[in-house]
Specification:
The chain is an alpha+beta fold. It is built from 6 helices and 25 strands. The chain has a 6-stranded mixed sheet with strand order 4-13-12-7-8-9. Strand 16 and strand 17 form a beta hairpin.
Length: 370
């Protein structure tokens, strides 16, 4: 049997070895000429005459939760071709909580496929299924359109265009416009391990903040002297006014970092990130003061539900919610939002005021979400 296979093996080797004539599918011509005349003698091929270029005019895109966003990506050839070519495009994604540095081979291995397309055929994957498409507004336009933008869609997106043996790509960062807020447990300070912090933020219609989001919040004036988990597993806290007990008076303002901590064993608070909400957060008027159970039912009777902490912060920051009345929220805390500081409404700075977690039998107003 082996003797019968030898002629076939010889033919295959001839076709594959450098200098062999190779094989092309009948009638197939991709318009490019590959050769190893100027190669290094190891059979490496070079792309001769035409270059494929991929770029993006906007490498950082900011958008609001629930909106439709476009991540720009275009490709062209130099010199220009006289006829269109059949190319393949692949969009992939590296979530924000896994980005630590410029793209590395390890990071590329962690990228998740978002969409692949060739001609008029395309396929989307995972949580992006049915929410993404290519814009195709002009020749070479492979911009990705994402509908119903979600909290977890932030991160680094890669647009990769493939033509034969040519493969070029560009990355675009997507961030959400939103607000960072510190969050602690009903049981008190430093009760969350990393996974508990993740869940606590999710329960309040938010996600763990990224380093970039906390840094932006610090630049905007966030000052908080309790350490909290971030999405990358580090523990940090923002200080705008150095003081004893918060890193000391001799250290410049900035983010104080404990670095990476064991995600199961160590316990801290959380820094959550909330983006804009589709509905409306409102104080329920014309109601007597309510205990927590009565407050939950009052919102239901009003055709809504009791608001969550992340929803209140987003409404305060993004929609200008301003109300000098303390009210129950879904986690059992009592808070109220102030955009225009005034007498008898807390500190002189805008913010969401908190009464913490009072006993559930005490009576306050209530904030609902519809």
């Amino acid at each position: 049997m082996l003797s019968l296979l030898r002629p076939l093996l010889a033919v295959c080797l001839y076709l594959l070895l450098p200098g062999g004539q190779g094989w092309n599918p009948p009638g197939y011509n991709n318009g490019f000429h590959y050769q190893d005349i100027n190669g290094n003698g190891n059979g490496e091929i070079y792309f001769n005459g035409v270059r494929l270029l991929v770029d993006s005019p906007q490498l950082l895109v900011s958008a609001a939760r629930g909106s439709t966003v476009t991540l720009p990506c275009h490709y062209h050839y130099e010199p220009e071709l006289s006829a269109p070519r059949r190319t393949r495009v692949k969009w992939s994604w590296l979530p924000a909580n896994t980005i630590h540095a410029p793209a590395s081979p390890e990071a590329l291995a962690r990228e998740t496929e978002v969409m692949v397309a060739m001609g008029n055929r395309h396929r989307s994957y995972g949580s992006f299924r049915g929410r993404v498409r290519l814009r195709r507004s002009a020749p070479g336009d492979m911009s990705l359109v994402i509908n119903e933008l979600q909290l977890n869609d932030t991160g680094r997106y890669r647009c990769e265009v493939i033509d034969g043996l040519e493969d070029e790509s560009v990355t675009v960062e997507l961030e959400l416009r939103g607000v960072v807020f510190p969050y602690f447990s009903q049981k008190g300070r430093y009760q969350f391990n990393f996974f508990g912090a993740q869940q606590a933020c999710q329960d309040q219609e938010a996600t763990l903040a990224t380093f970039e989001q906390l840094f932006t919040a610090w630049e905007e004036g966030l000052d908080w002297c309790n350490a909290g988990w971030l999405a990358d597993g580090t523990v940090q806290y923002p200080i705008t006014v150095p003081r004893d007990g918060c890193g000391g008076v001799d250290i410049a303002p900035g983010l104080r970092s404990y670095g990476q901590r064991h995600r199961l064993l160590y316990r801290y608070d959380a820094f959550c990130f909330s983006a804009s909400v589709k509905g409306t957060v409102y104080f329920l008027n014309d109601q007597a003061k309510l205990n927590f159970t009565e407050a939950v039912q009052a919102c239901v009777s009003n055709g809504s539900q009791i608001a969550k902490v992340g929803q209140m912060y987003a409404a305060w920051r993004m929609m200008g919610l301003d109300r000098c009345d303390a009210g129950w929220l879904a986690d059992g805390s009592v808070r109220y939002p102030i955009t225009k500081a005034r007498a008898n409404c807390g500190p002189p700075e805008p913010g969401v005021r908190s009464f913490g977690f009072p006993p559930l039998y005490l009576k306050f107003g209530v904030y609902c979400y519809r």
